[in-house]
């Protein structure tokens, strides 16, 4: 895979990194990443993955840009309020890096379409804000053998984890919490979305480029008020209905 002169200059800071270099940048260019939910986590993650040179980015979201989104969802501008999020984000990403192909899916990810959508990509980054969708994404990723980068946030804290086989996300969240909080109900500080979205993008880049130690099987917890973070291991649940039967096949 040959880079153009524009790409060599664009990715110069990656190309001189020993952990990325030419092979890592080529892997990024070959990669197909699906971002589920172009919101607080997915918006900054999409920008950094496009800037990093991921060859194909898929965006799936059925929502339109709202004025209240602009406090944290930095892929959008005021004049795009009312526009489909995937269309607005695609315009922004193509403007940021014309070497990236953007595929848009203006729909919600559901059990009916998850298998088809996820099987078309190499890696999935989930930034959705409801547990039903997160569990659906996880089940489809396990079935297709795709690694999942999961990011979530609320109030002043957030988390990022990577799931590839066992344990899976459902080992962490076996059931939908009856009192699950949403950002709309409890609020969220806008800059936290940038922190968690960037962390999620970083994990995706590491996975694709084969750099460093990823958060596979671990969860990074970040407390924005305290300015502190910690990482914990996620235990595999032998009774998990999604991954409890053993290892999933890898692509």
Largest sheet: 8 strands, mixed
Q: Residue ranges: pLDDT <50 for 5 or more in a row?
A: 246-251
Helix/strand order, N-terminal first: HHHEHEHEHEHEEHHHEE
CATH architecture: 3-Layer(aba) Sandwich
End-to-end Cα distance: 21 Å
Q: Helix/strand-derived class?
A: alpha/beta
Number of helices: 10
CATH topology: Rossmann fold
CATH homologous superfamily grouping? NAD(P)-binding Rossmann-like Domain
Q: How many beta-strand segments?
A: 8
Q: Could you name the CATH class?
A: Alpha Beta
* Global Rg: 17 Å
The outline comes out as globular
**Global mean pLDDT:** 94
Characterization of the model:
- With 251 residues, the chain is an alpha/beta fold.
- The protein has a single domain, classed as Rossmann fold, CATH 3.40.50.720.
- The chain contains 10 helices and 8 strands.
- An 8-stranded mixed β-sheet has the order 3-2-1-4-5-6-7-8, with helices on both faces.
- Helix 5 links the parallel strand 2 and strand 3.
- Helix 4 runs parallel beside helix 5 and helix 4 packs across helix 10.
- The longest helix is centred in the last third of the chain and has 20 residues.
- It is globular and about 55 Å long.
- The two termini are 21 Å apart.
